[in-house]
Design brief:
Length: 342
C-alpha cells in the first residue's frame, strides 16, 4: 500500500511538472495582445498627413497588393522637385487632408524613365511630344493605367477630403459644366482610377494615332488649342466616348445618355458604364468659360483672390484656379505663377 501511495505521489508530481512546463511554453509562445492588434491595424491610420514616397517605395507598396479599389496614391508632376511657392501651398492642402494616402511628385526625368521602362510601346510617341505640356498630359493617363490612384494638377486646392466618394468606384472624373457638346467640359486635371482600367488605353491609342497622322507643321508649331486637341481634355473626351459607346452598345451622345441636363444640379454625381462624373461644384467650381468669378478665380489675372473666389463659386471638395502654368501649350507665355512668387 505504502509503495502504491508513493507511486501515486510521483505520478502527481510528474503531472504537475508537465502542467507547469506546458503553461510556461504556452505563455512564451502566446503572442502578446499588443502584437495581435498591431498586426491588424492599418499603419496609415496613425499618419497625420500624406506620406511622400519615392518611386521605389511606391512600387514596393503597389506590388505588395496591400490596397484595394482605387489605390490611395496621389500623383502630381512638375519639371523638377522645385515647386513654385503657390503650387507648394495648394499641393500641401491635399497632403494635409488625405492623411492615409501616399504621395509622389513626378519630375520630367522620372516620367521619361517611367514611360521608357513601363510603356515601351508608347515611348517613341512620348519622346516626340512637344511642348512639355503634351508629355505632362499624356503621362498622367499612364499613372492612372499603371498604378491608378488620384492625379491632381498643381493649381488645385483641396477644400475637404472627398475620398469617401471613391468606395466601389472604378474611374472618377470631374465636370466643369454640363455642356457635353463641348469637348472641354471634362478636364484631365483631376482624375481618379483603379489600375488597368481600359478607358486609359483608348486615350493613349488616340494620342498615338493623331500624332502619327499630324503634319510637321501641326507637330512643331505653336498653335492655340494644340495641347487640348492632342493630349488634353479632347483626348479624354474622345477616349470616354469610345469607351462608353462600346460598353453600352450605343451611339448616343452624353447629353442623350444623361437625359435632360437641366435636371442635374451643380453637385450631382452621375454614373455611366461605371465611370463616375462629379458635378461642377464638387471639384471644379470655377468654369473659365462662363465668366462667373473670372476676375478673382483665374490665377492668370492680377486681380486673383482666392477668398473672394471661394465666396462666389462655393466649391465643395476642391477648386482649381486654372493657372495654365505650362502656358497654354506655349512655354514662353507669361503667367502669374512666373511673375508672382507668393
Ligand atoms: C528646377 O528648375 C528651376 C528653373 O526651371 C531651377 O531654378 C531650380 O533650381 C530647379 N531645381 C532643381 C532641384 O533642379
Ligand atoms: C460596396 O460594395 C459592397 C459589395 O457589393 C457593398 O457591400 C457595399 O455596401 C458597397 N459600399 C458602398 C459605399 O456603396
Ligand atoms: C463648359 O466648359 C467648357 C470648358 O471650360 C467650355 O468649353 C464650354 O463652353 C462651357 N460651356 C458653357 C455653356 O459655358
Ligand atoms: C427632368 O425633370 C422633368 C421635370 O421635373 C421630368 O419630367 C423628367 O423626367 C426629368 N428627366 C430626367 C432624365 O430625369
Ligand atoms: C459595371 O460594374 C458592374 C459591377 O462590377 C458590372 O456588373 C457591369 O458589367 C459593369 N458595367 C459596365 C458597362 O462596365
Amino acid at each position: 500500500m505504502v509503495d502504491n501511495r508513493g507511486y501515486k505521489n510521483n505520478l502527481l508530481f510528474v503531472a504537475v511538472v508537465i502542467g507547469i512546463f506546458i503553461t510556461i511554453i504556452y505563455i512564451i509562445k502566446r503572442p502578446l495582445p499588443n502584437e495581435n492588434t498591431l498586426k491588424f491595424t492599418d499603419p496609415t491610420s496613425s499618419w497625420t498627413e500624406c506620406r511622400h514616397v519615392t518611386i521605389k517605395e511606391l512600387d514596393e507598396w503597389f506590388d505588395s497588393g496591400e490596397w484595394n479599389g482605387i489605390p490611395k496614391i496621389i500623383h502630381q508632376t512638375w519639371k523638377n522637385e522645385t515647386l513654385r511657392e503657390r503650387q507648394k501651398q495648394w499641393s500641401q492642402t491635399w497632403c494635409n487632408q488625405y492623411t492615409n494616402w501616399r504621395y509622389h511628385l513626378w519630375t520630367d526625368d522620372e516620367n521619361d524613365l517611367f514611360v521608357r521602362t513601363k510603356f515601351l510601346w508608347f515611348y517613341p510617341t512620348f519622346q516626340q511630344l512637344s511642348p512639355a505640356i503634351l508629355k505632362a498630359d499624356s503621362v498622367r493617363y499612364l499613372y492612372m493605367f499603371y498604378y491608378g490612384g488620384l492625379y491632381i494638377d498643381l493649381d488645385y486646392k483641396s477644400i475637404r477630403r472627398a475620398d469617401h466618394l471613391f468606395t466601389n468606384k472604378s474611374v472618377i472624373l470631374s465636370l466643369i459644366n454640363y455642356s457635353f457638346n463641348s469637348m472641354n467640359s471634362v478636364p484631365n486635371s483631376w482624375m481618379a482610377s483603379k489600375p488597368h482600367h481600359p478607358l486609359w488605353t483608348y486615350i493613349l491609342y488616340r494620342i498615338m494615332l493623331l500624332w502619327s497622322r499630324a503634319t510637321d507643321q501641326e507637330r512643331n508649331e505653336f498653335w492655340n488649342g494644340k495641347a487640348e486637341f492632342f493630349t488634353g481634355p479632347q483626348s479624354l473626351f474622345d477616349g470616354l466616348m469610345f469607351y462608353i459607346h462600346s460598353n453600352l452598345q450605343t451611339d448616343q451622345s452624353l447629353d442623350q445618355l444623361f437625359g435632360n441636363n437641366q435636371n442635374q444640379t451643380s453637385d450631382s454625381i452621375l454614373e455611366l458604364a461605371n465611370i463616375t462624373f462629379l458635378g461642377p461644384r464638387l471639384m471644379n467650381a470655377y468654369d473659365w468659360m462662363n465668366g462667373i468669378g473670372g476676375d478673382v478665380c483665374s490665377a492668370e489675372r492680377p486681380t486673383f483672390n482666392e477668398n473672394i473666389c471661394k465666396e462666389i463659386v462655393k466649391p465643395i471638395y476642391g477648386i482649381t484656379y486654372w493657372s495654365h502654368s505650362y502656358g497654354h501649350g506655349h512655354e514662353n507665355d507669361a503667367n502669374y505663377l512666373r511673375s508672382i512668387q507668393t
